[in-house]
Amino acid sequence: MKYVVCVPDGCADEPLDALGGRTPLDVASMPTLTALARRGTVGRAAVIPPGMPPGSDVGNMSILGYDPSEFHTGRAPIEAASLGLRLAGEQIAYRMNLVTVGDDQTMVDFAGGHPGDDEAAAVVAALDAELGRGAGSPVSFHPGVQYRHIMVAPSSWMDAECTPPHDITGLPARWPAGAAAPQLQELMDASRSVLSRFDLRANMIWLWGQGPQPRMQGFADRYGISGGIVTAVDLVRGLGVLTGLDTPSVSGANAWYDTNYEGKRDAAIDGLASGADLYVIHVEATDEAGHAGNVEEKVRSLENWDRRILTDLVAGLDAMGDWRLLLLPDHATPLGSRTHTADPVPYLLVDSEVDGAGGTYSESGVAGAPVVPGHELMGRLVAGVSSPTRG
């Protein structure tokens, strides 16, 4: 048996006037997904547990089958793991965005114009030299992907209330509060001088998502199967590192609209054909479109999922024998609000050997269905039970 988990990040949405009261899932042309839903089982999942922040860190942890209320310690330490950083007991990590804040203190762009990886790495190196280790500071700066980076700080800097920058696009900046706020604010203000020397739209750093590194049971120990994750996002890759899943790199894969869909699909198929039991395919494009309020791009990204991943993925799985597939986003990113919500999301489970009740994969198609805790779905996919046996 082979298993695939498909994660169109943030694809769930709300009805839009621009789409005649429908959602992107309602209007996107997705014949392969439609066919899968007719033979599978659809429902609603709470990938974000009550009271937890509706982010990709929480949502993807749920999808991998780990209850975030038990394992989640913060977003940044997960991303730090993907960079090979191992935090000491007296250290925490902060997520560091390169952002654009206007003269009126409005969050203009939480992604700082999506700088290239090499451009961003040069900025982070300068920050580390002038505000971090090179200047004798207790913090260090580490490059990630595009606008997403990491700052490692002493654990005494943990006490701070920090707002995710994507939550305040077009709104007044909400600066850090709490005991560590003065240290964070000093660094954020000082970063303006460093970034001013680079030809980027980003003009400062934004620190948030702090926490110590979590300790997570290995995926193979938890579920008894091997696997991997294909993604271009450090956060999701970090979850793979922390749980012992393979994290292959794919040329041309990025966290933007023009990612290499086919490369991600083929990496998963190749991994399964080479002996892995399960592969997760994660694509960020639908989430980025939601944050940008770009209706056309969100619909197009869904159609790319169908045309460029699902169609040949199903054919490849059929060639290998029996298979099961789980498809769901890690959270909703409505185009209207342009940020994440904790609303339940539609999920689809398909077993190549068993006909399900069938249905429509969309928000309206699962309206009224019972809400399943998101972290239980991996157990249902792999073992046909509501949750794994704990080791």
The helix content is: 25-40%
CATH architecture of the largest domain: 3-Layer(aba) Sandwich
Separation of the first and last Cα atoms: 22 Å
Give average pLDDT, whole number. Answer: 95
Instruction: Count all strands and give the number.
Output: 12
Short structural summary:
The protein is an alpha/beta fold. 34% of the residues lie in helices and 19% in strands.
Features:
alpha/beta, 34% helix, Alkaline Phosphatase, subunit A, 5-stranded antiparallel beta sheet, 391 residues, 12 strands, single chain, 7-stranded mixed beta sheet, Alpha-Beta Plaits
What would your notes on this structure say?
- This protein is an alpha/beta fold.
- The protein has 2 domains: 2-72 and 215-383, Alkaline Phosphatase, subunit A; 80-211, Alpha-Beta Plaits, CATH 3.30.70.
- 34% of the residues lie in helices and 19% in strands.
- Strands 8-9-1-10-11-2-12 form a 7-stranded mixed β-sheet, sandwiched between helices. Strands 3, 4, 5, 6 and 7 form a 5-stranded antiparallel β-sheet that branches.
- Helix 5 (76-82) packs across helix 9.
- It is globular and about 60 Å long.
- The two termini are 22 Å apart.
- Mean pLDDT is 95; it is low at 385-391.
Layout of helices and strands:
Blueprint: E1 2-8, H1 24-27, H2 31-39, E2 41-46, H3 56-63, H4 68-71, H5 76-82, E3 91-101, E4 107-109, H6 117-131, E5 140-145, E6 148-154, H7 181-195, E7 204-211, H8 219-223, E8 227-230, H9 234-243, H10 261-273, E9 278-283, H11 285-292, H12 295-320, E10 323-327, E11 345-351, E12 371-373, H13 377-383
Parallel strand pairs: 1-9, 1-10, 2-12, 8-9
Antiparallel strand pairs: 2-11, 3-4, 3-6, 3-7, 5-6, 10-11
Helix pairs in contact: 5-9, 6-7, 10-12, 11-12
